[in-house]
């Protein structure tokens, strides 16, 4: 079972930030997977990610400046292109030849799609290939459609504990107790859901949602949902009615092996969402903050390295998470394809 730290998986695309938060000509430092990453948007609108460390004397490049094309280090003015290669060393005099093309800070594959900036973390120096040649694509929406709502929060826990929270069907009655979320949350009811393996994880098979719920009514008739969980910590929910669709993404991005950034975003087809965005964001914050506070308290206990446990069927998905993760790590170590270790199964619990 997991303690304070989690193994950080490589060979996968991670959500870095919503693209809408990065204007052309700007850079932002986004620590991910224990590495300092500088993400920028050039004047032409394209995004890039380089290592946020100057290879000359080690100062983070974020203290420098960006002219929309090259990043200039704050210490001695060396400049770096969007591929991380050095393009200028101002102190060189004529005849002083340094092979500057060989000087590089690292660069990461970086893609912007559906309003999200994704960064690929390689295991060695390989480029993205095979099933991870590009970032996961969310259902329903075109590549140029961004989210209507986006928030993110820092969680003082490992990616494993953040992931367990994502797939934990029985904490809501005790943690998410706001009046607007679920009336009589403590009145537990029997639940039964079918699951099956899917790409790099599993999914809760599409099932109808209660027609009396006002929010679902706004999507039309016959509203149903499908929830997918996959590496490296993505929960994708696709809610569809006969008129509209909503796609929700929760993405867990490790900052280090014991700290995590949790992104929550919604893509929506109905135009009426825009005026409701401030209220929506507020409610999302209240909800996510309840999870954030729980893991801070949990951390107090985990510091004493207790033996903790997972039980059936409430925590079965947490077990699946560890199996899928282990299989990914082993497949990479052994240089073989990933084989999904899960089988279709129905889970039952009270919540
Ligand atoms: S430390 Fe960056 S240019 Fe010297
Ligand atoms: Fe939660």
Structure description:
Strands 12-18-17-16-15-14-13-19 form an eight-stranded antiparallel β-sheet, covered by helices on one side. The chain has a four-stranded antiparallel β-sheet with strand order 2-3-4-9, with no helix packed on it. The protein has a four-stranded antiparallel β-sheet with strand order 5-6-7-8, with no helix packed on it. The chain has helices at about 160-165, 170-175, 215, 275-300, 315-335; strands at about 10-20, 25-30, 35-40, 45-50, 65, 70, 80, 85-90, 105-110, 110-115, 115-120, 150-155, 190-200, 200-210, 225-230, 235-240, 245-255, 260-270, 345-350. With about 350 residues, it is an alpha+beta fold. The chain is about 20% helix and about 30% strand. It has two domains: about 10-130, Rieske [2Fe-2S] iron-sulphur domain (Rieske Iron-sulfur Protein), CATH 2.102.10.10; about 145-350, Naphthalene 1,2-dioxygenase Alpha Subunit, Chain A, domain 1 (Alpha-Beta Complex). Fe (ii) ion binds near residues 165, 171, 175, 176 and 291.
């Amino acid at each position: 079972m997991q303690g304070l730290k989690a193994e950080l998986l490589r060979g996968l695309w991670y959500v870095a930030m919503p693209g809408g938060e990065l204007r052309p000509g700007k850079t932002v430092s986004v620590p991910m997977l224990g590495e300092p990453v500088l993400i920028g948007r050039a004047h032409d609108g394209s995004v890039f990610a380089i290592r946020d460390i100057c290879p000359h004397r080690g100062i983070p490049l974020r203290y420098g400046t960006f002219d929309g094309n090259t990043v200039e280090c704050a210490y001695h003015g060396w400049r770096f292109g969007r591929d991380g290669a050095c393009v200028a060393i101002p102190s060189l005099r004529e005849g002083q030849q340094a092979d500057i093309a060989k000087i590089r800070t690292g660069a990461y594959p970086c893609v912007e799609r559906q309003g999200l900036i994704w960064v690929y973390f390689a295991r060695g120096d390989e480029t993205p290939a095979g099933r991870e040649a590009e970032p996961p694509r969310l259902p329903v929406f075109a590549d140029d459609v961004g989210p209507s709502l986006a928030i993110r929060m820092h969680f003082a826990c490992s990616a494993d504990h953040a992931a367990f929270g994502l797939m934990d069907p029985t904490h809501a009655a005790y943690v998410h107790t706001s009046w607007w979320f679920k009336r009589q949350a403590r009145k537990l009811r029997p639940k039964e859901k079918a699951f099956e393996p899917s790409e790099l994880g599993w999914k809760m098979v599409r099932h109808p949602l209660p027609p009396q719920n006002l929010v679902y009514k706004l999507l039309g008739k016959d509203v149903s949902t499908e929830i997918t969980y996959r590496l490296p910590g993505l929960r994708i929910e696709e809610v569809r009615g006969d008129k509209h669709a909503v796609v929700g993404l929760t993405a867990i991005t490790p900052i280090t092996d014991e700290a995590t950034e949790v992104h929550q975003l919604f893509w929506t087809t109905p135009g009426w969402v825009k005026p409701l965005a401030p209220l929506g964001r507020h409610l999302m914050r209240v909800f996510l903050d309840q999870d954030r506070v729980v893991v801070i308290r949990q951390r107090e206990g985990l510091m004493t390295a207790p033996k903790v446990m997972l039980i059936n069927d409430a925590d079965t998905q947490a077990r699946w998470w560890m199996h899928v993760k282990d299989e990914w790590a082993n497949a990479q170590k052994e240089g073989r394809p990933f084989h999904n270790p899960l089988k279709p199964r129905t889970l039952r619990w009270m919540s």
